[in-house]
Amino acid sequence: MTDFMLGRETALVILVLFGLAWVGWGWYLGRNNRTIEDYALAGRSVGFAMATATAMATWITSNTTLVAPQLTYQFGVWGMLGYSMAALGLILFAPLAQRIRQLLPNGFTSGDFIYQRYGRFAWAMFIIISLCYAFGWLVSLGMAGGLLLSSLSDLSYLTGMTAILVICVGYTLLGGLKAVIATDFVQSIVIITGVVIVAWVCIDTVGFDTMHTTLTREQPELLNLLFPAAIMFFFNNIFFGIGEIFHSNVWWSRAFAFGPGIGKKSYLTAGLLWLPIPVVTGFIALAASSLNLVPPSADMVGPMVAAKLLGSIGAVFIFVIVFSALASSMDSLLAATSDLLTQDIVKKLFVPDASSDTLLRANRYIVIGLGIGTWCIAAFKLATLGALLNFTGAFVASTIWPIVFGLYQPKLTGRWAGLAMVAGTTCGLIGYFAIGFYVAAIISCGVSLVCCRIGIMQSKDYFQWHELEEKG
C-alpha cells in the first residue's frame, strides 16, 4: 500500500460519518412529507439558489470527477473539452424547462409529456430508453463508488459500491426530493471548492512546463488537436450530453418542482457554472506521466493523481469531493427513476385510480428495489465507467428531436416520434459496436432527426397545445 492511500480505519470512519450525516438529514427534511407531490416534487416551490445548486451538483457526477480524467488520459485535450461541452445540455434545456412548466403545470414526469403528446407507442419506446439509461447511470455511479474506495484505500470495490448505494438509498427513501435538493446544495459547495484546490496544487506542484515536456516526450498524441478519434468523441459528447438531459426525468422532475419562472434561469446559470469543471478535473489527469503514475484502470487516474499530489490528508479530501459528486447524482437519479416507475408504470398501467398514500408507498418500495437491482449489476463490474456510460449514448440521443419537436412542432405524430427513437437507437448501437463508442450518439441523433423531419413533412395533423394543459 502506497503512502498516499487511506487506511482501512480512516476510510470506514469517513463512510460511517457520511452515512449518518446524510441519512439523518434526509429524515429531518422529509419528516413533513405528506403527499406524493411533497415527496416527489418538493411541493413545486424550489427557489433559485437551491434550483441552480441541485442542477449543477447533479451534473457533477462520476462523468465529471472520474470519467473526465479517464478520457483526458486517453484522448488528451479533446477529452477534457469534450466533457465540458456537456454543459450545453443544461444551457439548452433552460428554455425547454420553461416551456414544459407552461404546457404541463401539474405534470410529474417526462413520461407524462410523451404519453399525452404522442400516445402509447412512442411512450412505450421512451420508457424503455429511459429505464435503460437510468440503470446504466445508476450502475456506473455504484461502480464509481467502489473504484473510489479501492483506489484510495485498501477497502474492496464491493465495500465502496455497497456504501454509496446504502447511504443514497437511505436519505432518498426518507426525505424524497427535498432531501435530494438540500444535500445537493451542500455537495455542490464542497465539490467546487475541492476541485479548485486540487487544480491549484497540481499547477503549483507539477507546473505547465513539466507536464508539457513530459507529454511531448511520452504521450504526444494527447496534445494532438488532430487526433481523429478524439475529435469524434468531442462532437459525440455534445449530442450525448444534450440527449441525457433532454430525455431524463431527473431534469424534467426539477422543471416541475422549481417555482414558477425559476427553471429557465436556474438551468442557464447551472450550465455556465458547470462548464469549466470537466476541464479542471480532466486537466489533472495530464499530470499522471509527470508523477510516474500508471493507474491499473484508466477510470482511476483522477483520484490517484489527486491523492499523490495532496498526500494522506489529500486522500481524505479527494474521497469527500468525489463521494459528494457521486451522491449528488445517485440520489437525484434514484428519486427521478422511482417517480417515473411510480407514475408511468404503477399508476398508468396497474392502478390508475391509486391514492396519494398508495403512490407514496409504491415510490418508496421502488427506491429500495432500484438500490438492490443496481447493487446486483454493479457487483460484476462488466465494463469501465466510460464504456458503460457511452453505451447509453445511442439510446438517449434518439430522444432529442422527438422531445424538441414535441414541445414546439405540432405536426409530428406519435408513430413517427416512436419510429425515430427506435431507428435512432438501433443505428446508434450498430455504430457503437462497428465503429466505436465515440460515434454512437452522433449516428443516433442524425437518424432520429431524419425520421422526425419525414414525419413532419408527410403529416396533415396539428396537435393542439391546450390538450396538454387540460390533461396536465
From TrEMBL:
<feature type="transmembrane region" description="Helical">
    <location>
        <begin position="186"/>
        <end position="206"/>
    </location>
</feature>
<feature type="transmembrane region" description="Helical">
    <location>
        <begin position="80"/>
        <end position="100"/>
    </location>
</feature>
<feature type="transmembrane region" description="Helical">
    <location>
        <begin position="429"/>
        <end position="456"/>
    </location>
</feature>
<feature type="transmembrane region" description="Helical">
    <location>
        <begin position="121"/>
        <end position="149"/>
    </location>
</feature>
<keyword id="KW-1133">Transmembrane helix</keyword>
<feature type="transmembrane region" description="Helical">
    <location>
        <begin position="309"/>
        <end position="327"/>
    </location>
</feature>
<protein>
    <submittedName>
        <fullName>Urea transporter</fullName>
    </submittedName>
</protein>
<dbReference type="InterPro" id="IPR038377">
    <property type="entry name" value="Na/Glc_symporter_sf"/>
</dbReference>
<feature type="transmembrane region" description="Helical">
    <location>
        <begin position="267"/>
        <end position="289"/>
    </location>
</feature>
<dbReference type="Pfam" id="PF00474">
    <property type="entry name" value="SSF"/>
</dbReference>
<feature type="transmembrane region" description="Helical">
    <location>
        <begin position="226"/>
        <end position="246"/>
    </location>
</feature>
<keyword id="KW-0472">Membrane</keyword>
<keyword id="KW-0812">Transmembrane</keyword>
<feature type="transmembrane region" description="Helical">
    <location>
        <begin position="389"/>
        <end position="408"/>
    </location>
</feature>
<dbReference type="InterPro" id="IPR031155">
    <property type="entry name" value="DUR"/>
</dbReference>
<feature type="transmembrane region" description="Helical">
    <location>
        <begin position="41"/>
        <end position="60"/>
    </location>
</feature>
<feature type="transmembrane region" description="Helical">
    <location>
        <begin position="12"/>
        <end position="29"/>
    </location>
</feature>
<comment type="similarity">
    <text>Belongs to the sodium:solute symporter (SSF) (TC 2.A.21) family.</text>
</comment>
<keyword id="KW-0813">Transport</keyword>
<dbReference type="InterPro" id="IPR001734">
    <property type="entry name" value="Na/solute_symporter"/>
</dbReference>
<feature type="transmembrane region" description="Helical">
    <location>
        <begin position="155"/>
        <end position="174"/>
    </location>
</feature>
